[in-house]
Amino acid sequence: MKALLSPEPSFSISSLQIKRPTYSDALPSSCLRFPLTDFNGHPRRRKLLPHGGGLKMKAVLDSAMMEQFGLKESDIKNPALSSTYRRSEIPKANPTVLDAQARVCTGPTQTRPLSEEQAFKVFDTILRSARGELKGEEPVSKAQLGAFFAGMTIRANAFPEETQWSEGEKRAMDVFWPLLVRALPPDVLFIADPEGSLLGTSNSVGPSFVGNESKEMRLVGALREVLAGGHLGYEEVKGVLRDVLPLGSEDGGLASGVSESLLSAFLIGQRMNRETDRELKAYCLAFDDELGGASVADVKSLTHYGEPYDGNTRFFRSTLFVATVRACYGESSLLHGVEWMPPKGGVTEEQMLKFMGAKTSLSVHQAKELIEDEKAGFAYLSLREARPSLYSLVGMREHIKKRPPLATTEKVQQFVRATGKESIVAGFYHEGYEEPLLMLMRRRGVHSGLVVKGEEGALSMTTRVRAATASKGFPVNYCSGFRSLSSETALEADGVSRQSFNLEVDARNYGFEPTETPRTDRSVSKNIELGLAALRGGKGAAYDRIVLNAGIVDHLLGCDGAEDVVVAMERAKEAIDSGKALKKLLNYIEISRKMK
C-alpha cells in the first residue's frame, strides 16, 4: 500500500514494513555532546567542565562552538529544570485554595466536590486572608477568589447532581458565608452569589452589582450569563477580551481598571461551561490585528505547530527537532509558545532554544525572515512578541489553576502567513476538543489541518505499544484531520474541498521496534541531549520518534513528495543521517543571535 489516505472519511493503518538496522536504545554519554563536528564536518575537540549540582552549559555546547557563535556563558540561561524558568515577579498563589480550585474549577463530570474537612479549611483560609490574618502562607489572590467562587456558583447553578455541592461544602458555607459577606469585596460577593439568595440569606450586593466603568460593566453583564451556565455570542466575547486586555499595571492588576476577580471568573467559567464554537472563535481571533497585518513568508509550504504552551513534564518533546528535519526538504515550520506556562510548567521549545543560545525574542518580521532563509527554514516565535495582550495573562493563569479557553485557541494561530500552502498541527488530550480544534483550523482557511493526541497531550507520537489497560478515550497516537483536494470533489460551505480522516498510528507498521519513551522529567538539558544525539544520527527511541513524527505529518498533511508514506519516512531519515537537520539547527542558532 503506497499511502495511508484513501477517499473514505475514516480509516486505519494497514501493515507497512521498512527494513531498519537493529540498534540499542542506550546511548553512551560521549554521544550526548553538542556538536561532534564543526560546520565543515571536521572533528571538533571537546572541553567539558566538571559537573557540579547540575549539567553545565559546556556539556551541551562545547567551548569551540560557543566561541564560533560569540557566546559567553553569561549569555546563556542555563537552569536544568523547566520549573526554574518561571518568572520571579509572578506572585505565588495560595496553595490551599489552589488545590481546591483543581478539584472544583473543572467540567461537569470531572469536578470532585470537597469533603467537609477540605471545605472548612478552604473557607477558613479565604476568610483569614480577607481579614489580613493569614500567617505562614501566601494570601489568596483576587484571581483565585474569582476562579474559586465562579466554580462554586456554576456547579450550584448548572452542573449535574453528582458534581454539585457536597453536604460538607454546604455545611461549611452555612458557617462561613455570614462572615464572608462582611469580609469580601463587592465583586467577589457578586461572583459567589449573583442572585443574592445564597443559603436563604438576603444579600443585596449580587443582584445590584454592575461594575465601576463601562468596560467592567460589559464584563459583569457577560459574566452573569456565564455564572448561570449560559453561553455568549462571538462579538460579545471578543468585545470583553479586547476591553480588558492586556494586563499590565505594576501591582499585577489590569491596566484597563477591570477587576482581576471578574476576569478570572469569566475565563474559568467559560471553560467549565464547555465553550461553544462561537466562543472559541472569539478567543482564537480576537487579537489577530494586535500588531497590524500579518507578515507573509515567501515559501511554498508553511506548517504552524501548535504544541500545548505549558510544555512536557515527563517525556521527550520532539517538535523542535522535527522542524529541523522537515526544513531540509522545503517544508517550513513556525513553532510558537512561551518560555513557561502553568499549570504544568514543563519543558518548552523556548526553553530549549534559549538554553542553546538562540535568540528567543524575535519579532514577527524576524521569524518570517528565518522561515524564508534556506539556511534555517523554520522559526520559533514567542507569544510575548506575537500577542502581548494574551501573554500578559500568564501570571493570572497560574492563579486560575485550570486551563482557560485560551489553552485551546492559542494552539491554532497564524502569526506569519505564507504565499504557498499553509497547514496547522495541534496537540490535544481531552476527548471532545479534537473537533473544535479542527473547526478553528478550517476557520483559519488553511489547506490542511491535523490534531494529534501525542504523549502528555503534546504532538509527539510514540513508538511505545499501547497498554492493554490504557485509559478510556482516544489512545495516544490518535490523529484526526483534513486536507484540501482538487476541485472535482464536492465543496464545503466555505468553498474549499477537503478530505477528512482519522486514524491511530501504530509505529510497528513502519518497522519501528517498540520502545519506551525517553523520560526527561522537566529536564531541559536532557531533552536537548536526546534531540541532538538523534540529529547526529544516533539510533534509538528519540531518533525513531523524530522520524515517525516528521514522516507521518508530511504524509497526512499532503506535503509534496510524501504521497507514499514509506518515501516520507525515508526522506526524514536521510535528512538526519546526512547531517543536514543538525546543520539547520546550528544555522538557526547562529542567524537568530545576529538579528537586532
UniProtKB/TrEMBL annotation:
What InterPro entries does the record tag this protein with? Answer: Nuc_phospho_transferase
One GO molecular-function entry = glycosyltransferase activity
Keyword Transferase appears in the UniProt entry: yes
Asked whether the keyword Metal-binding is assigned, the reply is: no
Keywords of this entry: Glycosyltransferase, Transferase
Report which superkingdom the organism of origin falls in: Eukaryota
Tell me a GO cellular component. cytosol
Q: Which PANTHER family match?
A: ANTHRANILATE PHOSPHORIBOSYLTRANSFERASE (PTHR11922:SF1), GMP SYNTHASE-RELATED (PTHR11922)
Q: What is this protein called?
A: Glycosyl transferase family 3 domain-containing protein
Q: Which organism is it from?
A: Brassica oleracea var. oleracea
